[in-house]
Specification:
By secondary structure, the protein is of the alpha/beta class. The protein has 9 helices and 9 strands. The protein has a single domain, classed as 3-Layer(aba) Sandwich (Rossmann fold), CATH 3.40.50.1820. This is Alpha/beta hydrolase.
């Protein structure tokens, strides 16, 4: 499919942004967006990063950490997220996670065929971690050098009945017959406020693209996620080494800025660790003390640990060739 020529990105002139035109869906035209940051001294390697739910790529520090090591950094804003969201679209909605494979495939073509990289590290956060694991398992490209997962969403958190067979049947039926039905839920703004610079956090990002209160959840979308969980639970076989980074602890009580900044208050880290080995045959699971849900947005001293751990893991398990 055609793409708009690269332009400067909202993160600044160091970044280039490409808009990819995808086949339209029931809501109309569909787009995805690739953001690229290049190193001064390239090492012939690249990173492809995918964001999480109610999110988009704004992680300048994370990108520059890779670029400082010679990697060319590519980030993909999936359809109906961030840079790719249009007024006529329902934010983040898909009926099957494999719908995202189209833009991942087209970005992969740009990285490996157009730009010629033969060593690519996959990186993903939260729901993106589930999607990228499924994509990597299905595509199994020889250029995949490693998979870095930041708090991937591997199961339905909450009470046991949410994961029961009866609940699964209900999600399947309603997700098929009434896919756009919104699921009632209470969402605290604490996590968003703990991140954003205008509310006491460290990071500046577009609140229209990443709202403090998250986004609505639709039953058809949740059905798609649960299908993805089921595939993962049956066992994937991602061919490259994988590392799963998470906070050491979750907290689901009364939320404060302190708990949001030092715990995962979005996902259950015990579930993340339980299912980590389902990604493939070579998986390292690392819990970071004091990390938040998006571990690379944690407090500075915790981020130092995250990057040190990632650096050691890459040196130990990911070949440079």
């Amino acid at each position: 499919m055609p793409s708009v020529p690269p332009q400067d990105d909202v993160l600044g002139p160091d970044y280039r942004v490409e808009t990819i035109t995808l086949p339209p869906d029931d809501e109309g035209p569909v787009f995805a967006t690739v953001v690229t940051l290049e190193p001064e001294v390239p090492n012939g390697r690249a990173v492809l990063h995918v964001h999480g739910f109610a999110d988009y790529f704004f992680h300048d520090e994370y990108a520059r950490w890779w670029v400082a090591r010679g990697y060319t950094f590519y980030a993909l804003d999936l359809r109906k997220y961030g840079r790719s969201l249009r007024d006529h679209q329902t934010p983040h909605y898909v009926s099957d996670l494999s719908e995202y494979f189209a833009e991942i495939d087209l970005t992969w073509w740009r990285i490996t065929e157009r730009d010629g990289f033969r060593h690519v590290v996959l990186s993903a956060h939260s729901t993106g971690g589930l999607t990228m694991s499924l994509w990597a398992d299905e595509r199994r490209h020889p250029e995949m050098a490693a998979l870095v997962l930041n708090s991937p969403w591997f199961d339905m958190q909450g009470a046991a009945w949410l994961r029961s067979r009866a609940t699964g049947v209900a999600i399947e039926r309603l997700g098929t017959t009434r896919p756009m039905r919104e699921i009632p839920r209470k969402v605290s703004e604490v996590y968003g406020r703990s991140l954003h610079a205008e509310h006491g956090g460290e990071w500046d990002y577009d609140l229209a693209w990443k709202p403090l209160e998250s986004r609505p959840v639709y039953i058809g979308w949740l059905r798609a996620v649960r299908h993805g969980h089921a595939r993962l639970h049956r066992g994937l076989d991602v061919p490259c080494p994988a590392v799963v980074l998470s906070s050491a602890r979750s907290f689901f009580g009364e939320q404060t800025d302190e708990t949001a900044s030092t715990h995962d208050i979005v996902l259950d880290v015990e579930q993340i660790r339980r299912w980590a080995s389902s990604v493939g045959r070579h998986v390292t699971s690392i819990a970071i003390e004091g990390a938040m849900h998006d571990v690379v947005l944690s407090r500075p001293e915790v981020r130092e640990q995250v990057y040190a751990v990632l650096d050691r893991w890459l040196g130990a398990w990911v070949p440079e060739g």
